[in-house]
Specification:
- The structure holds 2 protein chains of 2 kinds.
- By secondary structure, chain A is mostly helical.
- Chain A has 6 helices and no strands.
- Among the domains of chain A are: about 45 residues, no CATH class; about 35 residues.
- Chain A is about 70% helix and about 0% strand.
- Chain A starts with a helix and ends in a 7-residue tail after the last helix.
- Chain B is mainly alpha-helical.
- The chains are: A mainly alpha, B mainly alpha.
- Chains A and B meet through helix 1, helix 3 and helix 4 of A and helix 2, helix 3, helix 6, helix 7 and helix 9 of B.
Chain lengths: ~150, ~190
Amino acid sequence: MNPHELEQLLLREQSGELSPSQRRALDAEFAANPAARRFRDQLRALAGAAPAPAAGPAPDAAARIAARLSPRPRIFTWKPLLATAAALALLLGVYALRPGPASAPVATVAVAAAAEDEDWTDLLDDDFTELEDLLAAIAAEDPFADL
Amino acid sequence: MDDDDANLLAAYQRGDAEALGRLVEKYKRPLFAFLSRFAANPGEADEWFQETWVRAIEHMNVFRQKNLLGWLFRIAHNLVIDQARRKKPDCSLDAPLPDSGAPLADLIPAAALSPADEAAGRDLGGHIAAAAARLPVEQREVFWLRLDAGLPFKEIARIQRTSINTALARMQYALAKLRADLAPAYREIQESRP
């Protein structure tokens, strides 16, 4: 076994990831090669000599995380707008394509329109008459008579 | 996911702020230890710690891993890689200087142990930390995830989205560089063995 392969097996051994066949190969290497055990001890010593990690975050870290996660103002996105526009377009389409009321016969419509026109003419005639009477009354009076 | 973690997350999502506090407390040591190996100072590590949790909670809907700590490390890994890319110098140390033609690296003090470090002599941990800080970020991650967090290579590979063999190879490269960098201190480690 070359040193590279040995180191890989030793690393797997330390992390508890040796397969049964790798375990057997490593044990055989230990039995045959005393240097293999020294190499393992070196690796263990290195791991043991590594400096202790930092203790922990600031005491209020959890509160600050919670504050950052509190509901934020909604960011504008196109998706809701597009969905609304699509819904409106659908409604308009349905409205435009709806079946209309049954159409009335032409003669009936013409008679009704004529009757309506007649009513309007009478009303206009009445208004003109009233206006003429007013103008006549104004003309009869002399606004400068008292001056 | 751990039942306890799942319950705490569900409680937090129902509005129980204390549940989040308990989760943060549960995983603060390994996560903060990892981040502090890469941050420039404790304040930056603290900021990254918060950012990791915020991203983890906000993206909980895509969480597919079996354990929450693995998920947190995965996010922390992304954050560390992003930061390393941002801090990457935009000039090469091998580029010759215009006036002397010598490479820029020649002007930078050697990355080996400083006189103060040498004087410290027995501070093996300090030597290891300083030498590890000079490793490429992926190797450094494997090194500290293995030594600090005690994660198996299978889990480290998952965090780095690589194969277990690559994770192992990164560890081996890291060890080879540390041996070369720490030759005097490494001898001391060997001699200090009982």
